[in-house]
Design brief:
Elements lengths: L1 E6 L3 E7 L5 E8 L8 H9 L2 H5 L6 E6 L5 H14 L4 E6 H9 L5 E6 L3 E6 L4 E2 L15 H13 L5 H10 L4 H9 L4 H6 L4 H4 L4 H18 L11 E4 L1 H5 L1 H10 L4 E5 L3 H11 L1
Parallel strand pairs: 1-4, 4-5, 6-9, 9-10
Antiparallel strand pairs: 1-2, 2-3, 6-7, 7-8
Helix pairs in contact: 1-3, 4-13, 10-12
Length: about 280
């Protein structure tokens, strides 16, 4: 059997294929970002999914694309974890950016962007990815990501910069006790995922001026640091992956138009496109 997986920091989507490339099942585990999650926890998140464990000895190949898999050390960590579980499998671990490319443009030149729990971008020349810079993660970069906006909402709430009506609703939906927040940020694993959990609040108030302004500012920063430096014109397709881009596509397109660029497509969940790519190329 063959496993194909697209893994972010929050969740990982898995699809199992038989030897005839027919889909057998699909499941979702918790995120498997090896840059922020310890080895034992990575292993637990896989073995706790019984569908995966039931076929562990039958798996011959795994194609895993994940957040935090852009440098050798975390890639090796996740590879070793999977090899301990799927003992008969040939395992390929690559960064989620490559999955985004395959899901969006396949093998055609394009700029491909991710706006999920974290954020990133690349220019794909048809053969390889060109990155502006290495990503330093949620504390330093990740413009316009879920954790970026979650952090902004928390700051605005505690600095009384959030409109009262929205602040009241925000307070009713989340535990905003400072000690609870600090515990999750500094004592628990996955603080980036915790911050991103606040960003879902924006979808409910997407027509509010405050939310639109917040989104616009984040998208402007993303274009400034993650798209404009590639210095490509309107002839280069631009794809976005992720729910933030999907739900706020109208704002995204306005900013693109401002720079004489055009958004070709926004894909909320890339796993189906990724499956089609692998069926054609395995």
């Amino acid at each position: 059997m063959i496993l194909i997986a697209d893994g972010g920091s929050t969740k990982a989507d898995w699809i199992a294929l038989d030897n005839n490339k027919n889909e057998v099942f699909r499941v979702r585990t918790l995120g498997l970002n090896p840059a922020v999650i310890a080895k034992d926890e990575l292993k637990n998140r896989i073995i706790n999914m019984f569908q995966l464990i039931n076929i562990k000895d039958e798996v011959s190949q795994i194609f895993f694309y994940g957040a935090g898999c852009g440098t050798p050390k975390p890639v090796q960590l996740l590879h070793d974890v999977m090899q301990e579980i799927f003992v008969n499998a040939d395992i390929h671990v690559a960064e989620d950016m490559l999955a985004a490319v395959y899901a969006a443009s396949g093998t055609s030149p394009s700029i491909v962007c991710i706006l999920g729990t974290g954020s990133n971008s690349c220019y794909f020349n048809g053969e390889s990815m060109e990155m502006i810079t290495a990503s330093l993660g949620y504390t330093v970069m990740d413009e316009a990501s879920g954790n970026y906006f979650g952090k902004k909402l928390l700051r605005d709430f505690f600095y009384n910069q959030m409109p009262k009506k929205i602040a009241k609703k925000f307070e009713s939906e989340f535990n905003l006790d400072p000690d609870y927040i600090k515990h999750n940020l500094y004592k628990e694993p996955n603080p980036n995922m915790y911050l991103a959990s606040f960003a879902k609040f924006m979808f409910e108030f997407k027509e509010e001026k405050y939310i639109k302004k917040t989104i616009k500012k984040g998208f402007e920063e993303f274009f400034k640091f993650r798209i404009l430096p590639y210095d490509k014109g309107i002839e280069t397709p631009i794809y976005f992956i992720g729910s933030i881009a999907f739900y706020f596509r109208d704002i995204l397109e306005k900013i693109a138009n401002k720079y004489d660029l055009s958004i070709t497509d926004v894909i909320q969940r890339p796993i189906d496109n990724l499956l089609d790519f692998h069926k054609a190329n395995i």
